[in-house]
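Give me the fold.
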Amino acid sequence: MAKVGAATSTNGAYNPTSTNPDAVKTWDEAKKQAQDAGILWERPKDDKRSADDILKDTPILRDLGNQEHVRDLLQDRVGGDIKTDADAAFRAAQILEHIEKLDGDGKRIAGGDIGNGRVDGFTRGGEARHNTEAGRLKDFGEQGFSVLKGKLPHASTANGNPDARKQAEDLDIKWELPESDKRSAKDIINDNPVLKNLGNQSNIKDMLKEQVGDFENDANAAYRASQVIDRVVMYNEKGEVLSRTDVSNTSIDGFTKGGEAKHGTEAGRLQDFGKYGFSSLPKINKTEDSSYKDFIGKNKSADETSKIFAKYASLINQNYDLIKGKTGAGDGLTIKDLQNFKDQNPQIGNDLKEALNFWSQPGAFSKLETGANPLTSKPDGKLSKDDITGWIKNEAPKDSSSAMSFLSSIVNKNVVSGVDTSKLNKDIFEHPEKHSTEDKAAALQELLLAQQLVVKGGQSGMWGDDYSKVAISNIARTNPDPKEILKDIDKQIDILQGDPEVVKYLNENSAKQMDKLLEGNKGLKDALQKTYEDDIKSGKALDKIWDSASKDGKTDQRSALAEFVTNAKLYQSALKMDPKAAAKDIQDAVSKSKHIGEFKSYYENQLVSGDRLKAMLKDHSFQDAVSTFSMETALYGSVLPPEFTEKLDKKLNENFTNLANEHIADGGSFKDIQKVFGLEGSGDLDVAKVQKLIEEVSKTNPDFFLNKDGVLIKPEQIVASLRGDWDSLRQGTKTLKEVMDIKGSTGANATDKGILHGVSGLLMAGITIARGAGSGGPLSDKQKVDITIGSVQAVTLLAEGGAKGYQDYLKGLNSNVKESLGKLNDKLRFLVSDPAKMQVELNDRMGKNAKSLEQSAKGVGAIANVIGSAYSLFEGVKALRSGDKVSAGMNLTSGALGIMAGGASAIEAGAGLFFPNLAKTALSALGFTGGVLGILSAGAGILAMLPSLIQEGKAQQKANDFGNLLGSYLTKYEIDGVPNGNIGDLPDSAWPKDTSVAS
């Protein structure tokens, strides 16, 4: 920059020392004063304009006259010839901008003639009037930079203003784009229609740039500008959210026809921001949603997971109008509205982001959007404020169990959200092979919803009067007895849950969905962890479940324990816990429960003693009783302290073996055996048929027919022994029970063990095959072989006191077998291998046998199946306790699946002996569902009919609406609670006496 000498002033008011380039001190003083006034002394490095370019870009400087020597004085003050010195021209342009935008007190001037390209305020005679642009320019020429009050804002330097940044961040306005947000300035502007359409009335666009930066080219500046626009449009001066319909329009409202901004309007608030910066904006008034306050007040002991669900809902409620206005939503928010608001507003707080992310899940949204009337409203994709407050008040989980049940249902719904269930119908049951696994999983989820609807409807008194019973029945085309409806729903649910591909699909995909959900919701994951630490590990959740399961001073402790363990496993699965640590946590939690004494007492005095099994055998079939007993025993044995249960293992095995031996012939007769093994069903034994079956068993499982000397019993020896028993049965000198008694004289002679296994196994197979032929027509030869193998295996286990006893027996034969191996079946080579390998191979083969038996005897209720499965469960629990995960996994899985096929559901529903759908629940509790399936069927016994508290007039309309909702789930599947017919086939006795009320 060229330094110049002192200028002369025509009016003598000019002080040349202030700009004398030879007076370094004065020069530096001028630079500092300029900086204080917001004047940049030199052009930025990237500004390559010449003096002439600057003049062309600045008409007010280019056309400036010299009234009262203002042009000469300006040039002297900036220290150079503005026509040739680019930096001098740059300073001069800023000075004119300063006197045009800021008044004598340094306050920002808005509106008026700013930017009109001339200095206003000269009289016709050329005199500068006081307190005008001309007056301020004259004062500057006479007094220098010190006369400039206030700081000239620059869009180019706004980004680096630390004071402005602090003020913005104190208002929760993010200064820079998140790293993950790769939008350009143009993208951000396009995402905000108000910013995109912003005009420059009263210079508001220029003023906005001065405060946030050049938002048309700088992405961070555009990000700030978008947030400022939202604050101006969505909130009033007090920071209260606005809910007017015009909030969602695409322009700044509040300008007069002349372009002036009116106070108290969007235009006024934006103009104030341009004048005063971030200090003019209000902090958002985050008043806590009253429904959330009520929830916390009424549920002081709620776990952290339940609290965060309620908090997420309250955040949507609190920001409902803001979301609606910002997205231009119609009469209700949609999933897309929630997603768009979150995606287009990355500046919002993490809590709100998580709430939006959570409730925009299809499974979660469907729950929330029916919150106002869950018994009468089907999801329609629209969320109202009433839905949210209703859900928080009446439907939100309040403890760790209901919280996990809620979360699991959301995850499972997410898995099948892409299926259009309106296209599903009864064909999915009649021709399952024509439908995809995903469709079946979706049908299962829909029926689970229907199941919950019936249960909740019953609890709410929906069937509480004759009108409601008949109205619901006529509209939904269902049985007037909700228990019958529930039985029918449960039956179809069991079909779908019994499909291994459906279970596999749900398990694998629900686990993925859970991971995805928690990745986007750190607060939820933290809440799950805290609930797990505070409620699950401490045992408090178990005590709460115990209390809720207590009625009239009595507690169903089996249900309480199963529910607790199931939920604990689901929490552990969601949190990806180490299996070993997870198992220990559950054991410790049960030990910490104040009811540990009752659990121990029940295990020792009811299960180990066999009294529980004895009691069930009085009124129920052997299969059903053993199914329930073995699952209960496995459940208790896996969660009670190991040092307590292991000392009872021997007694448990002995008592079970004795009881099983007493009852293995229950329900069978010689007539059954005769039908299967008699010549054309006669009283004469079909030796060829029997011998062929024994040969088939010996091909794959020869070890069943080894005696203590390692000698392989020949098929004809077994047939000969069976012939003797056959004659005794035919003549009536012995009963089937006596013949099959493994603890009798035959079983006592170890040399005859191979014969014992074969004979008793054949008789057990005969009973099962006869049942199969009677219930579903003739069985194939393969099915008969599979049933015989499974039956011989079951008797073998029974004779040796379980799998461990049988393995010990085989180990004792090792040396004898080794010596004579060449003479024996090649299948026996595994007996002389490493003991550990022998155990694995034996377990694997016995598991396959059980699986084949399950498939061949499906629906028959094979005695052999439940006996083998019971021993597998007992052994699995022992292996789990000792840390043998491989053996535990094989035994528990095999045993649980065997029980599933053994008919446990009949005893559960019929007698209410255990938690609804015991087998599925206990299987989940033991950790073998492979994911977060969380399907707990309701069962008929859960339906408690409460007196209707609904006023009669409202009740009738509600019954009609409920019927419509229930019918929308069930009618298409033809589920009506009427076996082998429809409601037209029901007898008069099934209907209320006054059937005219709703006809």
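Confidence is low (pLDDT under 50) at residues 1-18, 745-751, 900-954, 995-999.
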